[in-house]
Specification:
With about 400 residues, the chain is mainly α. It has 2 domains: about 95-310, no CATH class; about 315-400, no CATH class. It has helices at about 1-35, 45-50, 85-105, 110, 120-145, 155-175, 180-215, 220-245, 250-255, 260-285, 290-310, 315-325, 330-340, 360-365, 365-375, 390-400, and strands at about 55-60, 60-70. Strands 1-2 form a two-stranded antiparallel sheet. α1 packs across α8 (about 220-245), α5 (about 120-145) crosses α7 (about 180-215) and α6 (about 155-175) packs antiparallel against α7. The chain is elongated, with a radius of gyration of 26 Å. The two termini are about 30 Å apart. This is Urate oxidase N-terminal domain-containing protein. Keywords: Membrane, Transmembrane, Transmembrane helix.
């Protein structure tokens, strides 16, 4: 019953996380598009009203005319019911952290720790994981505040953040299970994104609104910081998404240099995102879109595909496997009972898979072969200590046509 309820908690948290993330990313992408698609107002009355930029759009059978004011309109007081965009961000982080806690922190011994990578107590691993989230935000914030000034400030900050992310990815992959490390680095960036909204963007906007309503000139630093962090958030989005999706593909986080795989995936996402951001401004200004930047991102992905392609099995190993006698279901069941049933039984059915009977083993035979032999994702972090000889038993059973006796 506990396992059943726990699965419901995970399902509902995951569902809520996806819903809120879609809302946040959608709002973020829309406002980035809007901000970069504005053109100077064409009519004198708009200029007289203080409109800084406008955009005409058609959608859903209607026309929309968006106007941007850098400050409050000089002809109309700010309304009390201003629309604010922040709960999408907060809800995404809260549901994501809840999901991370329920899956990884509460099961640190199985999900967070891989003893072949770093054998340490679960309590220390949990504290280190939480430390990653906090430390990255603090260091990132220092980089933005100290290095973001001057004509080349954005370039220097970008290089600093790339270096920080690279180091964090390397360190995470030395301390945690590969799957957990990839997710933790994504959560680290997502935490910085939400912290940007919570600590800088929204408080800055509130101070600007308060100053305008009081008839005072707002401090321009709030707009500058908010713009900087908003731009960073849009570049972090695709790297965060690929880090989350990577959990489903063991050949990514199990690669020999998995930290570099993660960094290159994130870099490709940021490069591709840059082309789409630049496309909006290029369209308004009549310039061509710098698709070559997205092309560079695709080249990075192509290089990864080539690099991670599985090498052909050594002829000697293939000959050994071919010469080995077929394995029976009884032999396979010995391996399954020792290495798999702990997490796949009548009471605990991770991923909805139970393997405690002959019929269930036969039913999931293809998945067993894929997960334990081809992808080598199971047992998770090899927590039950499956051996190569036992993986060979699974392969011999599969190659024999998955006999039911």
């Amino acid at each position: 019953m506990d396992s059943y309820l726990f699965d419901w908690v995970n399902l509902l948290l995951r569902w809520a996380h996806v819903i809120t993330a879609v809302a946040w990313i959608g709002a973020s992408f829309y406002f980035v598009m809007l901000d970069n698609s504005l053109s100077p107002p064409q009519h004198a009355d708009l200029k007289a009203k203080g409109v800084d930029g406008e955009l005409w759009a058609v959608h859903g059978g209607g026309f929309y005319h968006s106007n941007k004011y850098m400050l409050a309109p000089n002809w109309l007081p700010l309304p009390q019911n201003l629309h604010w965009s922040y709960w999408e961000s907060y809800s995404t982080w809260l549901t994501g952290f809840g999901l991370f806690t329920s899956l990884y922190l509460l099961n640190a011994g199985s999900f967070l720790i891989d003893k072949s990578v770093h054998d340490w107590p679960p309590a220390l691993a949990i504290m280190a994981a939480l430390g990653f989230l906090a430390a990255f935000w603090l260091l990132y914030d220092i980089i933005c505040r100290r290095l973001g000034r001057g004509r080349r400030g954005d370039l220097i900050v970008g290089a600093g953040v790339l270096g920080l992310v690279t180091f964090a990815a390397w360190l995470a992959c030395q301390l945690f299970a590969g799957r957990a490390a990839f997710l933790l680095v994504g959560a680290m960036l997502a935490t910085a994104m939400s912290a940007n909204v919570f600590f800088l963007i929204i408080p800055g906007q509130r101070q600007v609104v308060a100053a305008l309503r009081a008839g005072l000139a707002p401090d321009p630093v709030h707009g500058q910081r908010g713009k900087q962090r908003s731009v960073h958030n849009t570049y972090f989005t695709l790297p965060v998404l690929i880090a989350m999706l990577s959990n489903h593909y063991g050949w990514l986080y199990q690669a020999r240099h998995n930290w570099l795989v993660l960094v290159l995936l994130m870099l490709a996402g940021a490069l591709i995102r840059h082309s789409f951001v630049a496309r909006h401004r290029a369209h308004v200004q009549g310039r061509r879109t710098p698709w070559e930047v997205a092309g560079a991102g695709l080249l990075v992905l192509a290089g990864l595909i080539f690099w991670l392609a599985p090498a052909p099995a050594a002829p000697a190993l293939e000959a050994e496997a071919a010469a080995a006698r077929p394995a029976s279901l009884a032999e396979l069941k010995v391996v399954i009972d020792q290495r798999c049933v702990l997490c796949h039984n009548a009471e605990v059915q991770n991923k909805g898979v139970a393997l405690h009977t002959d019929a269930l083993i036969a039913q999931h035979g293809l998945a067993i072969y894929q997960q334990a032999v081809l992808l080598r994702q199971m047992p998770l972090n090899n927590a039950t200590g499956i051996t190569e000889a036992e993986r060979l038993v699974i392969r011999r059973w599969f190659d024999a046509g998955m006999p039911r006796h």
